[in-house]
Amino acid sequence: MSPRMTSTEAVPAVPRPRCWKRGLTRVLVESALIVFSVLVALAVDEWRDSRTQRVRAEAALAAILSETEANRAAMQRARDLHQSIAPRLGTMQESGTYAEERVRAHFRRSAVSRPARIKV
Questions:
Q1: C-beta neighbour count of 103 within 10 angstroms
Q2: Cα separation values, 33 from 74, 99, 108, Å
Q3: What is the C-alpha separation between 24 and 108, in angstroms, rounded?
Q4: Using an 8 Å Cβ cutoff, are 90 and 112 in contact?
Q5: What is the rounded distance in angstroms from the CA atom of residue 56 to the CA atom of residue 51?
Q6: ∠ at Cα 39 (25, 58), nearest 5°?
Q7: CB-hemisphere CA count at 13 Å for 67?
Q8: What pTM value is reported for the model?
């Protein structure tokens, strides 16, 4: 028994290599689809983030405008109060009736909780 093959033995069939161009084309197409899918996902995520940021910015702007209007109204009320008090204080000072108790009584009627101390 020799290690050589005889003519009567069947030669095993060697698989024929696939065409490398077909395999490369498939790999390239799948890679391109993966890259495209990732890019689409990133674009959708960016769009969603910018939309959320825009909504937050609009809410912040509305809050700032609301606070500004509230501050403006409070300033107007304070201005009106001060303008109503100023002439009375001036006449009280000129006439010499600038008593601290009268000023406190006026402030109590004006709904101001703590007036500043007035030194006479």
A1: 19
A2: 61, 88, 78
A3: 91
A4: no
A5: 9
A6: 170
A7: 6
A8: 0.47
